């Protein structure tokens, strides 16, 4: 029985890996169950031992993305210690580096491609983009700026405005970074612009 369970887990993981690869190349609508099972090397009927349908495969992929993206932000519980021991430049540069390390992992890069492809077709993709990515990041940064003001490291300004002013340009540049990577083009210029944005922003808000 244990061997059977391991075999099922392995097959399920392979289905997800193949679907992730195919969806990231062709989009959800461009991939059939038959194509997934052919790439996995199983019968179509065998896929339904692991997933009810193709929709459930995509939903599982989106949930995995949520888990991975959540790792790019440090827990609020350790934020005070991080901010107290970091320079402004060091904190924001580390955040930028964390995202780069996240997106440069092949599996995460495929997650992002699917999200960009599906965001106007699939409600869950929109929810992830609007809430898990945009809102959660802005909420986190609002807390960061509140704490930085309290620590006397930056000017007394509206925290949610600071979060928006800092992050919305970054969202745009990160989208460009993702697209350049997808086309296997040089990203050095956009990376430089993101670093320049960090330093420019800090220079305008620090005391």
UniProtKB/TrEMBL annotation:
Residues 9-69 form the HTH tetR-type domain. Keywords: DNA-binding, Repressor. The keyword ATP-binding does not apply. Residues 32-51 bind DNA. The keyword DNA-binding applies. SUPFAM superfamilies: Homeodomain-like. InterPro entries: Homeodomain-like_sf, HTH-type_Tx_Regulator, HTH_TetR. PROSITE patterns: HTH_TETR_2. This is TetR/AcrR family transcriptional regulator. It comes from Cytobacillus spartinae.
